[in-house]
UniProtKB/TrEMBL annotation:
It comes from Haloplanus rubicundus. Homohexamer. Organized in a ring with a central cavity. Residues 493-671 form the Lon proteolytic domain. GO terms for cellular component: plasma membrane. This is Archaeal Lon protease. Keywords: ATP-binding, Cell membrane, Hydrolase, Membrane, Nucleotide-binding, Protease, Serine protease, Transmembrane, Transmembrane helix. Pfam families: Lon_C, LonB_AAA-LID, Mg_chelatase, Sigma54_activat.
C-alpha cells in the first residue's frame, strides 16, 4: 500500500527545512501550491521500523504484566490468589493501556503479531469483552515516527480538483503559518499601494480637476478593487486537514456508526458559488476517519451497520492505501469537487457480534482476512490464582480511571471476584465481560462515595448488586410480584398437567414459566398443539417430546389432541429447548391423571430416548425458583458444575440433578403405586437412565426467553 502521495525531492544534505522564500508565483501560476518542504524517505529494507516503545516492550502485553504487590504462594487458593493487600490502593496500575489488558490470550497474541506486521484484524465476540481496548492498545504499538500531516492546496488549473501533499508531522503547521505570513505581507503591500493611489486620485480630483465628488467615487472603486483582489491571495493558503503535530502515538480513530462523510471525508456545501464571494474548494475539504487514521488504527465496531456503499469505498481505501475526498451529498456543490488521492494507510480493526459476519460485505471481509487475522473474543477465562490477582488489578484500574471512587477493601475485591465467577456461568471460570463487571464496580464506588466512606466495602458491593440490576431483571422481578398479587404462581400441593418450568429473560434474569397440558378427544387425526408463541427451536423440542409420549402411552392417542400451553410466555415468546422435561412431565401427568408436585420447578433438555441434556442459565433459573417459593428444583446432572447461586438461596432450595426422564417423574409425580408403575414402564421402553459418566457434556442449549 502506498505510504503517501508526495513527490518532492529531498535536499542533497538530507536536512529538513522550510524555505523562507514566498511561493514562487504570486499571480496564481501552476507552481503556487508547491513548497520547498521535503518529506523524509521511508525506512530502507531491513531497517527496524520501531514499535513506539522501548526495545522488547511490545512483548509485554496485558496478560504478561505481573502484579506489583506481595504474594503469598501458600495462600494462592484464596479469592485474591495470594495477594497480601488491604485495599486496591496498594496495587500499582500500569501506565500503558496495552499493559492493562485482562485475559483474551488468543486475541492478545493476534494483536501483537498484527501490530508488528501492520495487519488488519476482525474481532467477533460479545459486547464488553475488550475489543475497543485491544484496538487502542494496538495503536500504542505502531511506529509513531512515520506520522504525516496532510495539506490540501488550491489547483490553479482546475479549482474543483484540489492538490494534496503530505509532509512529516509537525511541518504542516509551519507551512500554513509561512503561507499566512506571506499573505499578510502581500496584503500590507497591497494596502500601502492602495492608499497611495487613493491619495493621488483624491489630490488630483481636488487640486487639478476640482471635482471632489468624482475623486471620492474613484477612490471607492479603487478600494473595492484592491479588496476583491486580496481574496485571491488569501485563497492560496493551504488547508491543513490532518495535523499530527501533537500526536504522541499512532492515531486511533473510532468510526463506529459514522456516516459516509465522517468516514470517507466530505466537501462542505458553498451557497455562494460565483461572483467572487465563493469559498475556495480546497478550503471546504473535510477529512474522514480513514484519513485521520493514516499510519494508525481505524476501529469500527458493529461493522455490519455501515451501508453497502461505505463498505465498498472502505474496501478501495484498504486496497489502495489512499482515497480521494469528494462531497457525499449528490445535490451539494461539494459533489463537484474531487481531490487528489489522500493517504489512508491505516490498520483496520473491525468488530462486532456474531451477526456482524452475516450482514458484512463479503468482499470487505475477504480483504480483512486476506491482509490480516480473524479472532473470536472469549467470554470466560479459567479461574486461576494469577487471573484472580489480575481481577484485583482490574478493580484498581477502574478506580484510577474513574478518579472519583474510593479504593476497594480486600473483602470487596473478593466479592467482585465471586460475582465474576457467577457471571461466567461455568464452574472454574471467570467472566470476561468486563464492561458489565466494571459497571458493578462503579455503582459500588458511587454508593461508598455518597456515604463519605473512606473505602468501598463488601456491603457496598452487595447494595450495588441490587441497584445495578438490568432492565430484564427489573422486569422479571416485577413480573414475579404481579403473579403473586394475582395468585398465578402455585408453590404447594399437587396439580394434574401443570409443571413449574424455568426460563431466562435477557441474559441474567430467571423466571418461573408454568406449563400446562390437557388431553382432549380429537375430531380427526390426533395432534399435539402447543401455544405460547413458540419459536423454531422450542417447536422442535415439543416434537421430540411427542416421540417419547407416543412410545410411552398405552392408550391410542391417535384419536386425542394434546394441548400444551406455556402460561404467560409474554410478547417475546419461547425460544430454546430447555423446557423439554417440563413439557414431557406435564403431558404424561395429563395422560395418566397423576398430579405434579407444585413446590417443585425444573429445567432441562430432552433427547428422543429420554436422556436429560444440559441447558444454559441454570444459576439464574434456580434463584428464580427460590424467589417464588419453590422448595426443590430439578436440573440436568451435567449442569451441576455450573451452579453458582448466591449464599442466601442455598438454604432456601434443594437442587436435584437428574440424567433421565424416569428420574424426573420419580421426583415430580404424586403417589407411590401409580408413580412406580409409570416409571418402571418408561424405563422398559426408553432404556435405563444413563450412567453419570456418560451424560452428554456438550455445550449448553439455549434457554427459553
Amino acid at each position: 500500500m502506498n505510504d503517501d502521495t508526495n513527490t518532492d525531492e529531498r535536499p542533497a544534505d538530507g536536512a529538513e527545512r522550510i524555505d523562507d522564500d514566498p511561493p514562487r508565483d504570486e499571480s496564481g501560476g501552476a507552481d503556487e501550491w508547491e513548497d520547498d518542504v521535503p518529506v523524509p524517505s521511508g525506512p530502507e529494507p531491513g531497517d527496524d521500523p520501531g514499535n513506539g516503545a522501548d526495545d522488547g516492550s511490545i512483548e509485554d502485553l496485558g496478560s504478561d504484566v505481573q502484579i506489583d504487590a506481595e504474594i503469598d504462594e501458600d495462600a494462592e487458593d484464596d479469592l485474591l490468589g495470594g495477594l497480601q493487600i488491604e485495599s486496591t490502593a496498594e496495587i500499582q496500575v500500569p501506565d500503558r493501556l496495552v499493559d492493562q489488558v485482562i485475559g483474551q490470550e488468543h486475541a492478545r497474541d493476534v494483536v501483537m503479531k498484527a501490530a508488528k506486521q501492520r495487519r488488519h484484524v476482525m474481532m467477533i465476540g460479545s459486547p464488553g469483552t475488550g475489543k475497543s481496548m485491544l484496538a487502542k492498545a494496538m495503536s500504542e504499538l505502531l511506529p509513531q515516527e512515520e506520522l504525516q500531516d496532510v495539506l490540501v492546496y488550491h489547483n490553479p488549473d482546475d479549482g474543483n480538483e484540489p492538490k494534496v501533499r503530505t509532509v512529516p508531522s509537525g511541518k504542516g503547521d509551519q507551512i500554513v503559518e509561512a503561507h499566512k505570513e506571506e499573505a499578510r505581507k502581500r496584503n500590507q503591500m497591497r494596502s500601502f499601494l492602495m492608499w497611495i493611489i487613493i491619495a493621488i486620485v483624491l489630490g488630483y480630483s481636488l487640486i487639478i480637476a476640482g471635482n471632489i465628488l468624482l475623486g471620492i467615487l474613484a477612490a471607492g472603486i479603487i478600494y473595492l478593487a484592491f479588496r476583491y483582489g486580496s481574496r485571491g491571495s488569501d485563497a492560496m493558503i493551504p488547508n491543513l486537514i490532518v495535523n499530527n503535530a501533537d500526536q504522541q502515538t499512532a492515531p486511533f480513530e473510532d468510526a463506529t456508526g459514522a456516516h459516509a462523510g465522517a468516514l470517507l471525508g466530505d466537501v462542505r456545501h458553498d451557497p455562494f458559488q460565483s461572483g467572487g464571494m465563493e469559498t475556495p474548494s480546497h478550503d471546504r475539504v473535510e477529512p474522514g476517519a480513514i484519513h485521520k487514521a493514516n499510519k494508525g488504527v481505524l476501529f469500527i465496531d458493529e461493522i455490519n451497520t455501515l451501508d453497502v456503499r461505505s463498505q465498498q469505498h472502505l474496501m478501495t481505501a484498504i486496497q489502495e492505501g489512499e482515497f480521494g475526498i469528494t462531497g457525499q451529498s449528490e445535490r451539494s456543490s461539494g459533489a463537484m469537487v474531487q481531490t487528489e488521492p489522500v493517504p489512508c494507510d491505516f490498520v483496520m480493526i473491525a468488530a462486532g457480534n456474531l451477526d456482524a459476519m452475516e450482514n458484512m460485505h463479503p468482499a470487505l471481509r475477504s480483504r480483512i482476512k486476506g491482509y490480516g487475522y480473524e479472532v473470536y473474543m472469549d467470554d470466560t477465562i479459567e479461574d486461576t490464582p494469577e487471573m484472580r490477582r489480575k481481577y484485583a488489578r482490574f478493580i484498581a484500574q477502574e478506580v484510577e480511571k474513574d478518579g472519583r471512587l474510593p479504593h476497594f477493601t480486600d473483602q470487596a475485591i473478593e466479592e467482585v471476584i465471586l460475582e465474576a465467577r457467577r457471571r461466567a456461568g461455568r464452574k472454574g471460570h471467570l467472566t470476561l465481560e468486563l464492561r458489565n463487571l466494571g459497571g458493578l464496580v462503579r455503582v459500588a464506588g458511587d454508593i461508598a462515595r455518597a456515604a463519605d466512606a473512606e473505602y468501598t466495602t463488601r456491603d457496598h458491593i452487595l447494595q450495588a448488586k441490587g441497584r445495578s440490576r438490568s432492565i430484564e431483571q427489573q422486569l422479571a422481578d416485577d413480573y414475579i410480584q404481579r403473579r403473586k398479587d394475582y395468585e398465578l404462581q402455585v408453590s404447594d400441593g399437587f396439580v394434574v398437567g401443570r409443571v413449574n418450568g424455568l426460563a431466562v429473560m435477557g441474559e441474567d434474569s430467571g423466571i418461573v414459566l408454568p406449563v400446562m397440558a390437557e388431553v382432549t378427544p380429537s375430531q380427526g387425526p390426533g395432534e399435539v398443539i402447543a401455544t405460547g408463541q413458540l419459536k423454531e427451536m422450542a417447536q422442535e423440542a415439543v416434537s421430540n417430546v411427542s416421540a417419547i409420549i407416543k412410545k410411552f402411552s398405552d392408550e391410542d392417542i391417535t384419536q386425542k389432541d394434546i394441548h400444551i400451553q406455556f402460561v404467560q410466555a409474554g410478547e417475546g415468546g419461547v425460544d430454546g429447548d430447555s423446557a423439554s422435561i417440563t413439557v414431557a412431565t406435564a403431558v404424561i401427568s395429563a395422560l395418566e391423571g397423576v398430579g405434579v408436585d407444585q413446590s417443585l420447578a425444573m429445567t432441562g433438555s430432552l433427547s428422543v430416548r429420554g436422556d436429560v441434556l444440559p441447558v444454559g442459565g441454570v444459576t439464574h433459573k434456580i434463584e428464580a425458583a427460590a424467589k417464588t417459593g419453590c422448595d426443590r428444583v430439578i436440573i440436568p446432572e451435567a449442569n451441576t458444575q455450573d451452579v453458582m447461586i448466591e449464599d442466601e438461596y442455598e438454604e432456601m432450595i434443594e437442587i436435584i440433578p437428574v440424567s433421565h426422564i424416569s428420574e424426573v417423574l420419580d421426583v415430580a409425580l404424586e403417589g407411590e403405586p401409580e408413580k412406580d408403575s409409570l416409571v418402571d414402564r418408561l424405563k422398559t421402553i426408553t432404556g435405563s437412565a444413563l450412567d453419570k459418566q456418560s451424560v452428554n457434556q456438550g455445550p449448553s442449549s439455549p434457554s427459553p426467553q
